[in-house]
Design goal:
Blueprint (H helix, E strand, L loop, with lengths): L3 H7 L14 E3 L11 E5 L2 E5 L5 E8 L3 E6 L6 H8 L12 E2 L15 H4 L7 E12 L3 E10 L9 E12 L2 E10 L16 E6 L4 E4 L12 E9 L2 E4 L12 E6 L14 E9 L14 H7 L10 H16 L7 H16 E3 L16 E3 L11 H24 L10 H37 L21 H12 L6 H5 L9 H6 L9 H22 L17 H20 L9 H12 L12 H11 L27 H16 L6 H15 L25 H18 L6 H5 L32 H6 L8 H15 L21 H4 L6 H5 L5 H7 L8 H7 L2 H8 L3 E9 L3 E2 L2 E2 L4 E9 L6 H16 L7 E9 L5 H11 L4 H9 L3 E5 L3 E15 L2 H6 L18 E2 L5 H7 L1 H9 L2 E15 L5 E6 L7 H14 L4 H34 L10 H6 L3 H41 L7 H81 L13 H21 L1 H13 L25 H29 L5 H6 L2 H5 L1
Parallel strand pairs: 23-28
Antiparallel strand pairs: 1-7, 2-3, 3-4, 4-5, 5-12, 6-11, 7-8, 8-9, 9-10, 10-16, 11-15, 13-14, 13-16, 17-18, 19-22, 19-23, 20-21, 24-25, 25-27, 26-27, 27-28
Length: 1412
């Protein structure tokens, strides 16, 4: 009888509290750092999928007409889109379950609202969700999530914790239920607890747009309105139905505003909660049952297996089993085996197995305990995959056998007399194990029944098999293998089809008629080994099914298909070809893993002699696995046309490749190889630790870390590993290592934990890179007896010694741990969009970079103004006047024979030209298509790489806002440089890798004069180029006239359409995740117009080739686009330079002959034109040099990243890398060559200009010399005429002046001329001496007292600088001044002493009177 505390836990959903969840709860918090994933739950053909945060994303229901009906939220059912939604905590529009609304205003009662914007709203919420604090499940079936509840206030920056929100989902009575329980009180680790807002309000959401599809179809437009929902609130242990409004699941979600109850103080703490429960049901064909009553908390406590004594309490069962194993073996593994095995079983039984209806379409029906179809990937491309079915049923069979053995031994483990409590625990455990055994048996029988009815029974139809798309394929060999494996291992089961087989028509079933390939089918070499094993297993299974102890279990016509001789031949051929594969010394790859699995199946199928280990396929496979080498270099993802070679990635990033080593070590576990069993167990444990790196957030296996989605549909990976883990656990439980071998050795053995560093093999300096060591000849595998073959591990050591003797240098193994994906595979920039996450753009905040960007354009940079731009309805108008090209690369996945294989990328390219001449209707259609692409999420469109080419030189605020926040988030800094016309390069590393570059270039074009006026461009009459470095270069009007005589054709062309050289700014920005497998690229340049196809082709080729090393691929893509830009810039610069050099005849502007230089009519204008052209070229040179600096920085940085990997590229991939780099260097070389040519032209014309200046200076000097000579001669003539003129002037004086003697006459006139002539020439000849004499006399002042010259005080003082004439002159002038002062002083003294005797003299010495 339950105690009062137990009753309290069962009631009011108190078992959701942290302290009352019990042992049935399994926490996944320890895996929170692993790859996030969804959680799938179901029962009896009704299933659902919740995202990482527990919100409902998808539902499914069995349907007798369509097989399965699926419903999902508002997102595309593609791989990337589904994975992105599954890995997020909040699904937003993708979720349609019961959720607490986000982005709500704070709640305030109407009578208390004074300012709605400050206080809140009556439609707001008092609570909001905080961080997720707990994630797990109950009994590996029902997901559970717990969040922190925060007070919803105006200031959301401060998180005030007030309670918790628990959510659990489950399926009962064909209805999906979600329970949300709000409880006051904080976690123990919370810093502070705030009072719960009782009598407040909470807003819940339910519904939204729902899309429907049927089995094997992506969508079905004919399905609508199939989902129904009910919501109840628990009040005083009674459910009250809530009004969900118009929740028709076809539009937006319905918001329910619910007032929180008022809790009195006397209410118990356990009753202080608010609980809501919602039910969802898909309507299927047939009569719908009425809604059942909502189960009480006590009923759900038992139904969900929360009670540890319940028969569905599988969580405590598996924990007890593996706890006993750990206690017995003292082994502890990093791999959570109990969680992995338990979850794998529950997922197969409750989600993958779906009741199947057989019969004609429209007349099919479900049967009681009828067949179960095992569906792979139920919520993502569901299909019947017979290969996956085999390994899942094999796992269920092994789980059945394991539990059966455990049930038999569970009571014998009690060594001492058991107490009553222990006996009860053993009884309860027996009850749980027995029920699970029966449950497994029922599912196995019904799953095998489906195979028999679908593939063997003639004339049957089921909607799970699409006959039109089916064709023969080797994987259908698994059908008979699956049936035989189940029949052989479970001989006590009841196979329902055996009794019905007698009534079957004598016809061939579907398997023989259509699906099994013919025996003479020629296959490729890679498929030959796999098919040889499958064919052998198929026919031996058929032979064994024909001759069981219970008689033939398949129709008699199969006897004509097989005999013992054929089986023996196929067995011998399979072993030989497997041995030949081993001898081929081919490097191991991921595609060989399936061969490893098939090699060990011969033992599981019991088709080989267990005593003859030497000839077994398992031994051959074991030797191949133990001899394999680690991946040391990377292959290209795509080879060139007509090339052959490996294209697979590192095998270490495939989980099942590590499982191959585990199963090989487990195989040796059974052999007496001479190695202590504890060391063999340690080797098994190391393999398990490596596999633990591939666990996701629910402790299941991630099949592969490859960035393609080819292997993501490998749904059997976890079941393959779980089968091996059960086998290892069974051996550990059967063999008491701790009590037998360890005790016998006298030592206590405890395996040490394997550090993460051991997962990466250390580099080995010597090995043969092709051979994995000497291998015995083929007859060693077939004729070697077990007595002389020796221990297998010893032979491996000998092989290692031979490898060391090889002395061949090899590369270190790649660090495959670096390939592990992050918690969320897809960055938010690939997920967010205007269509899927509009709330992000409605509530964004303007940061400093955005403000700076918007300030570069005129207008209002406010948040409200910017928010109006970020709407899908404004995008079409914003893009209308521009040229925009979009290139998308999608991973192509052709579905063929239910195989999803990566075949490279499919490119989709579209181009819109706003100023083009296309038809208006066609342009409108293209524009709308562009808007749809840009507004939708890249993940929904299955896009891995997007490139946007925007050809414009002008931005408006709307386009700028859309580009920086929608088209390419993270491009703000690049856009600032672009609008500022600032050349720059930068590379940002981290979680987001972003590389951007902005370049300046000049482009010459001919424009219409009207366009010049419209754009405000006019020719400057002065031709001054120094006013604005960014202004366009255009020939001034004053220099057009000489152009007519220099180049008449160019003059006529300039008159019609003036040439203009304009500045062009080009920017490239490439953003990827840290790993580099998803990218966004934006090219903003007018120079890329017409380069769309070339960019598409080259980028697609590089992304395909470097898919295994995207870190190198992104660098090469950036360099490739930069190389194309360099090529275009070089061509534009060449045209501009030719305009100045050839059209304007710059080279001839400084070359004149003497006649043209001095007498040419337009020689000065021509010289001015040459100087203007040279100055223009210097302007081009300055911009080119800054751009070249940025390009060289980008080249250096990209090459450095390419050099450092990660991982070493193989020979083929390295050759491809070098080809791409050489292509970039060739294109960059064109720009470098042009830069050298431009520099040479500028230097040459600068020398011409300098030479012309020197020539002109020399010419001026010569003219001056000639002029001086002429002046000299004229001077001589002038000197000669001076006496004549003087004499004539003297004799011309009138006689009344009495100057001349009257009687002198003509003779006196002549004598006077001669005398004056002699005197003049004498003075001219001796002028220098005369000047020198006067200079000497000027230094001497003769005194009346007969005193000699007064010496200067500074007479002996040397000049300040003896070499400086100015200094000497200054010294002489100073001396003269000093002498004059001394003389005046002496004269004054003399006048004073003589004043008494000569009063008149004394008076005359007064300065004033003297002046008077």
């Amino acid at each position: 009888m339950a105690t009062q505390d137990e009753q309290c836990v069962k009631g009011s959903f108190n078992w959701l509290r942290r302290e009352d969840r019990g042992p049935a709860y399994i926490s996944y918090s320890q895996f929170s750092n692993r790859s996030a994933c969804s959680f799938e739950l179901g029962d009896n053909g009704y299933a659902a999928s919740c995202n990482y945060g527990g919100e409902l994303l998808q539902m499914s229901a069995k349907d007798k007409q369509n097989g399965i009906i699926l419903a999902h939220g508002d997102f595309e059912p593609s791989y990337y889109s589904s994975l992105a939604r599954a890995q997020r905590k909040h699904g937003e529009q993708a979720s349609f379950g019961l959720n607490i609304a986000t982005n709500q205003q704070p709640y305030a009662r109407e009578e208390r609202i004074t300012d709605i914007k400050k206080r809140g709203s009556s439609e707001g919420s008092s609570l909001r969700l905080g961080n997720m604090t707990e994630r797990g499940c109950f009994n590996y079936r029902w997901p559970f999530n717990e969040y922190v509840l925060l007070l919803n206030e105006v200031n959301k920056s401060e998180a005030k914790e007030t309670g918790t929100c628990a959510r659990i989902s489950f399926v009962k009575d064909d209805i999906l239920y979600q329970v949300i329980r709000l409880e006051p009180g904080c976690r123990p680790e919370a810093d502070q607890s705030h009072q719960f807002p009782w009598r407040g309000q909470i807003v819940l959401t339910i519904g939204g747009k729902i899309n429907y599809r049927i089995f094997n179809e992506l969508q079905d437009e004919g399905l609508d309105g199939l989902l129904d929902a009910r919501v109840h609130q628990l009040n005083n242990n009674k459910y009250e139905k809530l009004n969900v409004g118009e929740c028709n699941f076809s539009k937006e979600a319905c918001h329910m505003r619910i007032e929180l109850p008022k809790i009195e103080k006397e209410v118990r703490l356990s009753d202080r909660h608010v609980t809501f429960i919602a039910g969802f049901r898909l309507k299927t064909a047939g009569t719908q049952r009425p809604w059942p009553d909502i189960s009480t908390s006590e009923d759900l406590y038992e139904y969900l297996g929360i009670n540890p004594d319940n028969q569905m309490a599988t969580g405590p069962m598996w924990e007890a089993i593996y706890l006993q194993r750990e206690e017995q073996t003292n082994c502890f593994s990093e791999l959570p085996e109990a969680n992995l095995v338990g979850r794998c079983i529950e997922k197969i039984l409750t989600v993958d197995l779906i009741p199947a209806a057989f019969g004609k379409k429209g007349n099919s029906k479900f049967e009681d305990r009828g067949p179960l179809a095992l569906v792979s990937n139920l919520f993502l491309h569901p299909s019947i995959d017979v290969q996956s079915m085999f390994f899942k049923i094999r796992f269920l069979v092994e789980a059945h056998q394991f539990l059966s053995l455990f049930e038999n031994k569970i009571s014998t483990k009690i060594e001492a007399p058991a107490e009553e409590e222990v006996e009860n625990e053993v009884e309860n455990m027996n009850k749980i194990v027995s029920f699970q055994i029966q449950r497994l048996q029922d599912c196995i029988e019904r799953a095998i029944l489906f195979l028999a009815k679908a593939f063997i029974q003639p004339d049957t139809e089921t909607c799970f098999l699409s006959f039109g798309s089916m064709n023969f394929h080797p994987r259908y060999y698994y059908v008979m293998m699956t049936i035989w494996y189940a029949v052989n291992k479970c001989d006590e089961f009841n196979w329902a089809w055996v009794d019905e087989m007698k009534q079957w028509p004598i016809e061939k079933g579907l398997l023989v008629e259509t699906l099994i390939p013919p025996d003479n089918l020629r296959l490729e070499e890679e498929e030959m080994v796999k098919v040889s094993f499958l064919k052998w297993y198929h026919y031996v299974s058929v032979l064994n099914l024909l001759k069981t102890k219970k008689g033939s279990l398949i129709p008699a016509f199969w006897q004509s298909k097989v005999n013992r001789s054929k089986v023996n031949h196929l067995a011998r051929y399979a072993r030989q070809i497997a041995a030949a594969k081993l001898l081929s010394r081919q490097l191991y790859s991921a595609k060989h893993e399936i061969i490893d699995r098939l090699g060990f199946l011969a033992k599981s199928l019991d088709i080989e002699d267990p005593k003859n280990h030497a000839r077994s396929a398992a031994l051959i496979t074991t030797r191949r696995i133990l001899d394999r080498d680690f991946t040391r270099c990377l292959n290209p993802g795509r080879l060139s046309t007509c090339s052959k070679g490996p294209t697979c990635g590192p095998w270490e990033i495939h989980a099942l490749c590590h499982h191959s080593r585990l199963i090989a070590e487990n195989y040796q576990y059974e052999l007496q190889s001479g190695k202590p069993r504890e060391l063999q167990a340690e080797a098994v444990e190391k393999c398990q630790n490596r596999i633990s790196q591939f666990l996701n957030a629910e402790a299941c296996l991630v099949p592969c870390w490859e960035r393609t989605n080819a292997v993501s549909f490998q749904s059997e990976a976890t079941s393959v590993l779980a089968s091996t883990l059960l086998d290892v656990c069974q051996k550990d439980l059967a063999s008491d290592l701790k009590g037998t071998e360890t005790a016998a050795s006298g030592k206590h053995w405890s395996p040490s934990p394997t550090p993460t560093s051991t997962l990466i093999p250390p580099p080995i300096s010597v090995i043969n890179p092709i051979s994995l060591g000497p291998i015995s000849r083929m007859r060693d595998f077939t004729n070697e007896s077990s007595n002389n073959r020796g221990p297998l591990r010893e032979r491996v050591l000998v092989k290692a010694e031979n490898i060391q003797r090889a002395k061949v240098i090899r590369l270190p193994a790649i660090e495959w741990i670096r390939y592990r994906p992050p918690h969320q595979h897809h960055h938010a920039n690939f997920f967010n969009s205007l269509e899927d996450t509009p709330e992000i753009f409605k509530n964004f905040q303007i940061d400093e970079c955005t403000t700076k960007l918007l300030s570069l354009l005129p207008g209002d940079p406010s948040r409200d103004c910017l928010q109006s731009f970020l709407e899908e309805k404004n995008m079409e108008q914003a893009l209308k006047p521009y040229r925009l090209a979009i290139i998308d690369l999608k991973a192509s996945m052709p579905k063929q024979w239910n195989i999803h294989a990566w075949q490279g990328y499919t490119s989709e390219s579209s181009k819109y030209e706003g100023d083009g001449r296309d038809d208006v209707s066609n342009k409108t259609k293209i524009l709308k298509n562009q808007v749809k692409k840009l507004s939708d999420s890249l993940l929904d469109q299955q896009i891995q790489h997007r490139t946007i080419i925007l050809s414009t030189s002008k931005f408006d605020r709307c386009l700028l806002s859309l580009f920086s926040h929608v088209f390419h988030r993270g491009s703000t800094d690049c856009l600032i440089n672009h609008l500022s016309k600032f050349p720059d390069f930068s590379c940002q590393k981290g979680d987001t890798w972003t590389t951007r570059i902005t370049l300046r270039s000049w482009s010459k074009s001919a424009v219409n004069p009207l366009e010049l006026q419209q754009n405000g461009i006019h020719s400057d009459g002065s031709g001054d180029l120094s006013s604005n470095e960014d202004s366009a270069i255009m020939l001034p009007n004053s220099l057009r006239t000489p152009l007519q005589f220099i180049n008449k054709r160019a003059f006529e062309s300039e008159e019609k359409s003036p040439g203009i050289v304009q500045l062009k700014v080009s920017s490239i920005i490439l953003s990827t995740y840290g790993f580099g497998d998803f990218s966004r690229c934006a090219i903003i340049s007018e120079l890329f117009n017409g380069k769309q196809d070339e960019v598409n082709r080259k980028c697609k080729e590089l992304w395909e080739r470097f898919i295994h090393q995207p870190q190198t691929g992104r660098c090469l893509v950036f360099l490739t686009i930069l190389g194309l830009l360099c090529q275009k810039i070089a061509a534009e610069y060449q045209v501009a330079m030719e305009y100045f050099i050839l059209t304007l005849k710059l080279d001839k502007s400084f070359l004149f002959d003497e006649a043209n230089l001095l007498g040419g009519k337009y020689s000065l204008k021509q010289l001015q034109l040459g100087l203007w052209s040279l100055e223009s070229l210097l302007k081009l040179q300055n911009n080119l040099s800054t751009s070249m600096r940025c390009i060289k920085e980008a080249s250096t940085e990209m090459r450095a990243q390419i050099l450092h990997g990660p991982g070493k590229r193989g020979e083929t991939l390295e050759m491809m890398c070098q080809e791409s780099l050489e292509d970039f260097e060739r294109k960059l070389g064109q720009l470098i060559v042009f830069e050298a040519e431009l520099n040479r032209k500028i230097e040459l014309n600068s020398r011409f200009k300098d030479s012309l200046s020197n020539v002109l200076s020399l010419q001026d000097s010569r003219n001056s010399i000639r002029q001086n000579s002429t002046i000299q001669r004229l001077t001589y003539f002038t000197i000669g005429y001076l006496p004549v003129g003087l004499a004539t002037a003297i004799f011309a004086i009138p006689s009344d002046q009495r100057v001349l003697i009257p009687a002198m006459g003509i003779a006196g006139y002549v004598v006077c001329i001669v005398c004056l002539f002699i005197l003049t020439f004498t003075l001219a000849i001796y002028m220098e001496q005369i000047q020198h004499t006067f200079s000497k006399l000027q230094e001497i002042w003769p005194l009346s007292g007969g005193e000699g010259p007064v010496p200067s005080d500074n007479a002996n003082t040397p000049p300040p600088n003896g070499d400086d004439e100015d200094s000497q002159g200054f010294s002489r002038s100073t001396t003269r001044v000093h002498n004059d002062s001394s003389i005046r002083a002496k004269l004054t003294k003399l006048r004073i002493t003589r004043s008494d005797s000569h009063k008149s003299w004394s008076t005359s010495t007064d300065p004033e009177q003297g002046r008077m």
